[in-house]
Amino acid sequence: MTTPAAPRHPLSLFFRGVGDLGRGFAFWGRLPGAMALGLIPAAIVGALLLGGIITLAVFLGDIVTALTGFADGWSDIAASLVRFGIGAGLLGGAIVLAVVSFTALTLLIGDPFYERIWRSVEGHLGDAPPESDYGFWRSVGDSIGLILRGLLAAIVAALIGLIPLVGTVLGAVVAAFLTGWLLADELTSRAFMARGLDAVARRNLRRADRARVLGFGVATQLCFLVPLGAVIAMPAAVAGSTVLARTLVDARASVGQAGDTTAPPRRRNGA
């Protein structure tokens, strides 16, 4: 009888998720043609959203001043703290929304390009790519849902940013984890759905290895914050999410919990 592997520390699993993104970047060397095509929609959406963020930053002072007229009679220190917190919250929330919107819009606009990356990665990892009934309208629905959830995450981050002294840092940390989870959720959906997993099964798989999923998502989100990082990282994120999804499905199958909706265990290159 095989002895079950001992549970790993959440921090170890988190960094394993970061490694999944690294394995996605490795596909730049293995599948350069397919990966390069993924730059096109990412560059278009990235330029539009970056322009919006820059515009907000330019007019942020005027916006904050207009929103904080109630603080005009306060002491300079108190008014400055409140205005700084509101400004940081607004900018942080906008960045969260931009990151999530970037993923949703890029996947929607570039669906044929990312379909090719996904299929190429599946084939490279040893199996013929499963058929995917993703479809355009499903992509539209998923994109709208992701943007709405991103808006909620942005509001939460902005509200936390209002907390005096610690709000800016705490809001940034919460935003990174919320956004990371949303990104991992969206990016792994195609590989999961191709294997016949419904929404409940997909959610259970992610929650069963929450730390690893978060590691992948947070690492992806941080790459998106680097100038031009989102454009370069998007194809890698699609490839890495495919590796991650396959690993989660195979791990479930290996302990006899896959049922009829998952493929049998198989060797994973680089997973």
TrEMBL record:
It is a multi-pass membrane protein. The keyword Cell membrane applies. Its main location: membrane. It comes from the Bacteria. It is found in: Membrane. GO terms for molecular function: high-affinity sulfate:proton symporter activity. GO terms for biological process: cysteine biosynthetic process; sulfate assimilation. This is Putative sulfate transport protein CysZ. The lineage of its organism: Bacteria, Bacillati, Actinomycetota, Actinomycetes, Micrococcales.
